[in-house]
Amino acid sequence: MLTDPSIEKLKAKGASPYDVAVLVSKRARQLTEGAQPMVDDRDVANVVSLACCEVAADKVVAAEGEQKVYVPITREERIRREEEQKEKERRAEEARLEREAQYSALPEEEKSDDALDSLLAKVSEGIEDEGDEFADEEDYEPSEEDLAAAESDEE
Fold first, then answer.
1. Could you say which of 3.30.413.10, 3.90.940.10, 3.30.43.10, 3.90.1150.10 is the CATH number of the domain covering 1-73?
2. Which residue has better confidence, 148 or 127?
């Protein structure tokens, strides 16, 4: 049960309890996806409680309409995403090399345009299956200066 901050204090932060619930939910999702906490998170039980603390402290507020928001992620999350991207590139390179080896192993008479088109279709299917889980996110990657500025703002 949420006792700090109180439910009454949270209700005062929005036009309705529903608005506050949506705000807390969205912020909790951001925290789950690696966003940096804006309040001290040492004594907080979970991300929902942390989101409630941020709303109560006026660190997170609702804004009307569609907003394009940059949410800085933690260093650990940034490293995890970079490693994931490197692993994806490594798998794609391995697949490309395997396809090249398969093509090289074909007899000369099978290395026609049709065989090449078939092989390229297989490669493109493999690439399309991979998908990009961060495609909806903004392509902006913060510089070290941006991260340092964000950390100094938190203090």
1. 3.90.940.10
2. 148
